[in-house]
Prior knowledge:
P-loop_NTPase, NAD dependent epimerase/dehydratase, Rossmann fold, single chain, 2 domains, disordered C terminus, alpha/beta, Sulfotransfer_4, 5-stranded parallel beta sheet
Amino acid sequence: xxxxxxxxxxxxxxxxxxxxxxxxxxxxxxxxxxxxxxxxxxxxxxxxxxxxxxxxxxxxxxxxxxxxxxxxxxxxxxxxxxxxxxxxxxxxxxxxxxxxxxxxxxxxxxxxxxxxxxxxxxxxxxxxxxxxxxxxxxxxxxxxxxxxxxxxxxxxxxxxxxxxxxxxxxxxxxxxxxxxxxxxxxxxxxxxxxxxxxxxxxxxxxxxxxxxxxxxxxxxxxxxxxxxxxxxxxxxxxxxxxxxxxxxxx
Length: 250
């Protein structure tokens, strides 16, 4: 994740939909998109933890509507939340591809990829953040586990091995996104393949950004999890949504 939340720019529309799961280089990808598109990018992890409380409240409403099958509300809320951004990356947007494709039919879909084993290890480092509400857990189970309902984070982990989630997500993308609109991108490859996919010139004087490397995750994870959970608890008093009670660990 990045370090600061992005501010929307009036009149900016979504040009790129980032379909990669968290910890696949989404922060580096987002920074690169900001440079190439010269407009703000909505990185889900950063916006949820470093943005105003309204970010979390909106996504609570979006996920509740999504789980309840209320598509008009989902589309309306997503459109309002993303107004002023040139791209969206990271979760929970990366699991809302059909809705995003409907809202932004001309947007390019780019999925950041990573070695599944390395991804699994990285996700284990921030496991609590990835599943800190039952809403997000249930969204993932609907997509990757035939809609089974889980009562705990451990049950999710035991039933959905991280590596299996990665493979199922890629398969899910290939089923839902037209082949001519879907691009897979490894941030280790740098500017050239990304610029080719977007039809942009390769920057000659700016190195490709590498944000939130593995050695930095231990330093940032506690901040993100603790502050996000504090905000979720405050919002839950209004919304009535159950929050996983493990903030004391942090």
